[in-house]
């Protein structure tokens, strides 16, 4: 049975997938950081992580914590003192690497603090920080990542910590998927899933969708982050789309055909507007924007609402049956109005 780990108000291991991101502001600037977290929360973020580089960052967590509603994770490297300070200032979870936090005494101090405050920890491995022993034994491989991660888990378990979340990330999608599949077969701890250093928006979304999506369809993953060189809010939008594509989150499913030579109206523009209008809704609906009336209502007959276009007129349909014909010039206005009505229905 999957172990349950509570990160503030967020529960990991309960069968739902939590979306998270990381701020890009200096954590010591509490106002800017809290404002960015507010934007992330509005987009649908459920857990947020901040970088803790020094004592100013660690102490700012208290101020930030009082201004936000999301569970807050402190990301710390090289300093047991900062990990303890972050927890004492209200962090809901810490992300540390036992291998670079110091010796056994330093690790014990972090473990004692975590237990005293009932705060979980995320540990793991990625290809950029593999310990020498694992790299020499297995090279840059799934086995090396998993052995390293489980070694970090054992380091905390030794001191009585078992509220643990694990990650094994690589920038290679196949390696990431292989490592998480192996890890999932060996542990019941919740898994934080993502493709690290995925890149800029376009390539990063593709890599993340393939890697995270493949794992979610295998039933692997309890919390996800889409790592993009981009405004972190875009990470949330991408994560929500991945979850919806895997049928793991509610919301409006907007389907639209790729168009072809039969399309004689601007269905692409309308499809984009429908997605923008419906993206924030949590209603389980299917809305179709189809290029032509030749096969539009048939291909999207399971849609709650749909439109198929033509040069002179467009047809609105529900359940595959045409309910209304309207002039092509009025199609966008009328259809968006119908979408709004549908979103408001009880």
TrEMBL record:
Keywords on record: 4Fe-4S, Iron, Iron-sulfur, Isoprene biosynthesis, Metal-binding, Oxidoreductase
The enzyme's E.C. designation: 1.17.7.3
Cofactor(s) the protein requires to work: [4Fe-4S] cluster
Superkingdom of origin organism: Bacteria
Pathway annotation: Isoprenoid biosynthesis; isopentenyl diphosphate biosynthesis via DXP pathway; isopentenyl diphosphate from 1-deoxy-D-xylulose 5-phosphate: step 5/6
GO terms, biological process: isopentenyl diphosphate biosynthetic process, methylerythritol 4-phosphate pathway; terpenoid biosynthetic process
Chemical reaction(s) catalysed: (2E)-4-hydroxy-3-methylbut-2-enyl diphosphate + oxidized [flavodoxin] + H2O + 2 H(+) = 2-C-methyl-D-erythritol 2,4-cyclic diphosphate + reduced [flavodoxin]
Binding site for [4Fe-4S] cluster: 257, 260, 292, 299
Cofactor binding note from Swiss-Prot or TrEMBL: Binds 1 [4Fe-4S] cluster.
Domain IspG TIM-barrel: 4-239
Organism per entry: Candidatus Borkfalkia ceftriaxoniphila
Protein's name according to its UniProt entry: 4-hydroxy-3-methylbut-2-en-1-yl diphosphate synthase (flavodoxin)
GO molecular function, one term: 4-hydroxy-3-methylbut-2-enyl-diphosphate synthase activity (flavodoxin)
UniProt record similarity statement: Belongs to the IspG family.
NCBIfam families tied to this protein: ispG_gcpE (TIGR00612), PRK00366.1 (NF001540)
EC class (word): oxidoreductase
Cited Pfam families: GcpE, GcpE_C
């Amino acid at each position: 049975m999957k172990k349950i780990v509570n990160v503030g108000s967020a529960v990991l291991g309960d069968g739902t997938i939590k979306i998270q991101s990381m701020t890009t502001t200096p954590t010591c600037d509490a106002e800017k950081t809290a404002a960015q977290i507010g934007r992330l929360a509005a987009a649908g973020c459920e857990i947020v992580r901040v970088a803790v580089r020094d004592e100013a960052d660690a102490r700012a967590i208290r101020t930030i914590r009082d201004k936000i509603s999301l569970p807050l994770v402190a990301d710390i490297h090289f300093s047991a003192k900062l990990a303890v300070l972050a927890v004492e200032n209200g962090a809901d979870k810490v992300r540390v690497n036992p291998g670079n936090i110091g010796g056994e005494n330093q690790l014990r101090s972090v473990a004692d603090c975590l237990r005293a405050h009932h705060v979980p920890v995320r540990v793991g491995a990625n290809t950029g920080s593999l310990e020498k022993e694992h790299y020499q034994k297995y090279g840059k491989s799934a086995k090396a990542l998993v052995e390293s991660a489980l070694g970090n888990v054992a380091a905390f378990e030794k001191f009585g910590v078992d509220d643990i979340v694990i990650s094994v990330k690589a920038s290679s999608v196949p390696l990431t998927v292989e490592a998480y599949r192996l890890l999932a077969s060996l542990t019941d701890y919740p898994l934080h899933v993502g493709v690290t250093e995925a890149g800029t928006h376009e390539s990063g979304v593709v890599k993340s969708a393939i890697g995270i999506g493949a794992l979610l369809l295998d039933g692997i993953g309890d919390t996800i982050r889409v790592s993009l060189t981009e405004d972190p809010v875009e990470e949330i939008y991408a994560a929500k789309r991945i979850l919806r594509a895997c049928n793991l989150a509610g919301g409006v499913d907007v389907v639209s055909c790729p168009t072809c030579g039969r399309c004689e109206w601007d269905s692409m523009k309308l499809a984009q507007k429908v997605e923008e209008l419906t993206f924030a809704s949590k209603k389980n609906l299917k809305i179709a924007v189809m290029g032509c009336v030749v096969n539009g209502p048939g291909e999207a007959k399971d849609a709650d609402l749909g439109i198929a276009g033509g040069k002179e007129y467009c047809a609105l349909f529900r359940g595959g049956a045409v309910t209304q014909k309207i002039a092509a010039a009025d199609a966008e206005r009328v259809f968006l109005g119908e979408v709004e009505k549908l979103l408001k229905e009880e």
